[in-house]
Design brief:
heterodimer, A: alpha+beta, B: alpha+beta, Aldehyde Oxidoreductase, domain 4, Aldehyde Oxidoreductase, domain 3, 3 domains, 6-stranded mixed beta sheet, 18 helices
Chain lengths: 158, 797
């Protein structure tokens, strides 16, 4: 049995028929073909699949596609506007907040919502907010710096 | 042509690979989709040890969408996965006490499964969900057998392979046993003996292992995309040893790879099975590990049980070190497994100290667990942990300051050669210099005052040091060949100058986070005096690169970089011949300065790099007897290992009521020789520290010895370090270039992991010293373990 779903991903309307058990992350990667969202675990720990859904950072491995019916989704591919990097993307580049790049899309999408909630987060807040996203390369040091850099940049732009 | 003014070598240049990663355009193996793609799911043993009585694939084959189901019995003519490191007396390998038992490791086992997760069948279907569903319909009749997983119980455990030596895979020793015995009998010597358990770890690269195999019937070519740190090694092992297919018809591509830490060096069952099956079904096959599969099948790391003894004079000089280690190799011999607890471990036990005598004795054992092989540091963290823990235990026994005891024993500053007692010769070192620098950055005196004050309030603060050394730039082929390696460990580097002066560099090194596309471009642009934008770096493709031994053992900059440097020299030498002709000068009068070939000392009489490159490809006005083209390949084989070193300090606070350890401060001073890109090197140090702290405090792969089940088989159970468990790190460095290679670079990928584990554990022991604690046998130092240690110490008083 397949069910129809319709949603907006990065401003584009998409609709397909999917199995009810089909995870949102697999829909995004395999059906829609946006492979920037990654799968790093089976148990909702790693956060490599983080996207924003109706403005909330969520782990797309922890939702069925049908649960996202009607939703407005943004993935890493939708963050830069007209070739202009988002300040958080810039921050990760400036502060060497990535090495292998695999956790990076999830980290960046998480940070999008983090900085909406906490426009000027302390190091402690950033580290606490990063709890749901794992990185094995950076030891988190430069991820924290990248988000601090982006927060400063975004505050200055206001 | 623009000429850069500043040197690019030594500059923190932003990484050129980052734009694709931060915009979601990285291309990892699992992102690949090919026409006609099929998907694989493996059927794995749920038992630690079980005989396979039968496999019924009927229901699976009938499942909608299933293309094929294969078991080990279908794979006729396919051989065992090879172990690339031999330890046999007849081969003249030093230190062998009992020959390595070369046990078979079939891609799909058909007689006995020897660990949880051992693959027995593969299901290939039109969709991943069909493959996964059908895999559950493969009916295996198991006869469970008794199992053993614990390192110290392996020797007497149920036999895992049909070999006369039982579960003892090998015995090996190094050093001078008689001199060590004598050192321990020195009059007045203080001796300390400790049990030191270095627990089993899982690498946990964030990208799970994956492969896509595509066989093209028309050409007979097989292309394998695989998460590999060394695609040429994958190809060689798979073609020559396992499948017996022609190497030149196989192309292995390791595209963007999401971290490795050693776990992606090795040839694994799944990529062999998919490559073989793709030839059978003549369609592409993709397989990607679930994280659960990764825990069960990615080669694990460490897992040593050691009894170590140190003898010191009353003045604190280290007289002798005696080490007896049992190393758990798991159920099978992974690609480099026997090298890790022997030549990458015993040879590092001299540390940075002038020690009187050393003897190490290692027994490798088989157990019903996932195979153990190199994990970041590989053998060197285990050696460093034993030595740095014993130095601290010795200091405690002598009631001497641990930093002071280290300083008393340092090998004096040198460059050229220091012969250790354990078979290796260090290249250059200034060990006291690194500790001095550390003490400048970390105010030790002030800390001890704070600690004393805290103790009066019942707070448990502690500091731990680690003055480490490691061997990297792996490795001189002659040396490793004599020690049992089945391969050379050189590297290749091609510099191709195009007619317009654009440069493509082909390296046999592989980047899976290290930033080679930036670092090597920096190196080349700096050397040629051209903008970095003119240089492109290609890696990870056997179809494009001459050959490559890949990336591990902190070897890319030192070995891979030097191969590139050799090709640059050749390019410049040939360019001089062309330039001399164009300038009507003698080649010996031409020099290359900042992007142009010029008559020595006469910058006005010059031809730019681009004019020479164009002439090389449009040789209308060209010297007699010179070949057109400007394209050079070199293979660099190092004359020695390189030995980075440094001094780390960690400050912890232990909560007395709960035993929870909080890392308060971490200071690292590393000496990795010359540094090409400091930002990238610092980043690797950060990540290394996090992994080492992870081992000290949280991580551990745990098997239940009764059932043989892996208890930590997901990220819910295996405690990966998170951002709020770690502090910001303070990093600094001293620079002692290596004389081994012309770049003076040693290697930076593993220092943090090697150094940090003992620094953290030493800090926790220091925090508890007031309670009478001088050692904790096992890691990780979870709150529970530390709380129990505190309770036992209190009860003992």
């Amino acid at each position: 049995m397949k069910l129809p779903v319709k949603m907006t991903i990065n401003g584009q309307s998409v609709s397909h028929e999917v199995e009810p058990r089909f995870l949102l992350v697999h829909y995004i990667r395999e059906t829609v073909g946006l492979t920037g969202t990654h799968v790093g675990c089976d148990t909702s720990q790693c956060g490599a699949c983080t996207i924003t859904l109706n403005g909330q950072a969520v782990k797309s491995c922890t939702l069925f596609t049908v649960q996202a019916d009607g939703a407005n989704i943004m993935t890493i591919e939708g963050l830069a506007k007209d070739g202009e990097l988002h300040p958080i993307q810039q921050g990760f580049w400036e502060k060497h907040g990535l090495q292998c790049g695999f956790c990076t899309p999830g980290m960046i999408m998480l940070a999008v919502q983090m900085l909406e909630r906490y426009p000027k987060p302390s190091e402690e807040v950033i580290r606490h907010q990063l709890e749901g996203n794992l990185c094995r390369c950076t030891g988190y040091h430069n991820i924290v710096k990248a988000i601090e850099w982006a927060a400063d940049k975004m505050a200055a732009a206001k | 042509m623009a000429v850069t003014e500043d040197r690019l070598f030594g500059k923190s240049i932003k990484r050129r690979e980052d734009p694709r990663f931060i915009t979601g355009q990285g291309r990892y193996v699992d992102d690949l989709k090919l026409p006609g793609m099929t998907y694989a799911a493996f059927v794995r043993s749920p038992h630690a040890h079980a005989r396979i009585k039968g496999i019924d694939t009927t229901a699976a084959k009938a499942h909608p969408g299933v293309v094929a189901v294969f078991t080990g019995k279908d794979m006729t003519g396919v051989n065992s996965l090879p172990c690339g490191w031999d330890l046999r007396k007849e081969k003249g390998i030093p230190g062998v006490v009992q020959d390595l038992a070369m046990v078979p490791h079939m891609p799909l086992t058909s007689d006995v499964a020897r660990h949880v997760g051992d693959p027995v069948a593969v299901v290939i279907a039109d969709s991943q969900s069909a493959a996964t569903d059908a895999a559950e319909k493969v009916n295996v009749t198991w006869e469970p057998l008794p199992a053993v997983t614990a390192t110290d119980k392996a020797e007497k455990g149920p036999k895992i392979h049909d070999v006369p030596t039982g579960n003892v895979a090998f015995k090996w020793a190094l050093g001078d046993a008689a001199a060590t015995d004598a050192a321990f009998k020195t009059g007045g010597a203080v001796t300390v003996k400790k049990r030191i358990v270095n627990q089993r770890l899982v690498a946990n690269a964030m990208e799970p292992r994956a492969c896509v195999a595509r066989y093209e019937d028309a050409t007979g070519e097989l292309t394998l995309w695989v998460t590999s740190q060394n695609p040429h090694v994958h190809r060689l092992l798979m073609c020559a040893f396992v499948l017996g297919i022609p190497e030149h018809k196989v192309r292995v591509i390791a595209p963007d790879v999401g971290g490795g830490f050693g776990s992606k060096i090795f040839l694994y069952n799944e990529e062999v099975v998919c490559s073989w099956a793709s030839r059978k079904i003549k369609r592409p096959i993709r397989w990607t590990a679930s994280r659960r599969e990764a825990y069960m099948t990615d080669a694990h790391g460490r897992d040593h049980v050691t009894d170590a003894e140190i003898a010191l004079s009353k003045e604190g000089k280290i007289l002798g070190l005696r080490v007896k280690t049992t190393a758990n190799l798991g159920a099978y011999l992974s690609t480099f497994a026997p090298a890790v607890p022997t030549f990458l471990y015993g040879t590092l036990l001299n540390g940075v100290y002038a020690i009187g005598a050393i003897h190490v004795d290692v027994t490798g054992v088989f157990t019903n667990t996932t195979a153990v092989d190199a994990y970041r540091g590989a053998g060197r963290p285990e050696a460093c942990y034993v030595l740095e823990r014993m130095v601290d235990a010795g200091a405690a026994a002598l009631k001497m300051d641990p930093a002071e005891l280290r300083r008393k024993n340092f090998i004096p500053k040198f460059s050229g050669a220091f012969n250790t007692l354990v078979a290796v010769t260090y290249d250059s070192g200034d060990y006291a210099g690194a500790l001095d620098k550390l003490m400048q950055v970390f105010d030790y005196k002030k800390f001890r005052a704070e600690q004393a004050e805290a103790r009066t309030q019942g707070r448990l603060l502690g500091v731990g040091f680690s003055t480490y050394i490691e061997a990297c730039s792996i490795a001189p082929s002659k040396v490793v060949g004599a020690l049992g390696a089945g391969a050379g460990l050189y590297e290749s580097g091609t510099v191709r100058v195009h007619p317009t002066g654009m440069v493509t560099v082909y390296t046999g090194s592989h980047s899976h986070g290290q930033g080679h596309e930036t670092t090597f471009a920096q190196l080349v642009a700096d050397d040629l005096g051209i903008p970095m934008e003119q240089v492109e770096v290609i890696h990870g493709d056997t179809g494009q690169i001459a050959f490559g031994m890949g990336t591990y053992g902190s070897r890319s900059a030192s070995v891979g970089g030097t191969a590139i440097k050799m090709s640059l020299n050749k390019i410049k030498e040939k360019g001089k011949l062309i330039a001399a002709h164009l300038l009507e000068a003698s080649p010996k009068d031409i020099e290359y300065v900042k992007g142009q070939f010029q008559v020595k000392g006469v910058p006005a009489k010059a031809v730019p790099f681009g004019a020479v490159s164009l002439t090389a490809y449009v040789p209308h006005n060209y010297p007699e007897g010179l070949e057109p083209g400007l394209d050079e390949t070199s293979f660099y084989d190092p004359s020695n290992f390189c030995f980075p070193f440094g001094a780390h300090a960690c400050v912890v606070e232990v909560e007395p009521e709960t035993g929870k350890v909080n890392v308060v401060k971490y200071v690292a001073v590393d000496d990795v020789g010359n540094v090409i890109n400091p930002m990238i090197v610092d980043g690797m140090v950060h990540g290394g520290i996090a992994q080492g702290v992870g081992q000290a405090l949280w991580e551990g792969a745990v098997y239940d010895n009764d059932s043989g089940q892996l208890m930590t088989g997901s990220m819910m159970d295996y405690a990966m370090p998170k951002a709020d468990m770690l502090p910001a790190y303070v990093t600094d460095r001293t620079v002692t270039p290596t004389p081994v290679n012309p770049l003076g670079v040693k290697g930076a990928g593993e220092t943090g992991t090697i150094a940090s584990t003992p620094a953290v554990v030493n800090a926790v022991v220091d925090a508890l010293a007031g309670l009478g604690v001088d050692h904790i046998d096992a890691m990780p130092l979870t709150a529970e373990r530390v709380w129990k240690t505190i309770q036992a110490a209190k009860a003992g008083k």
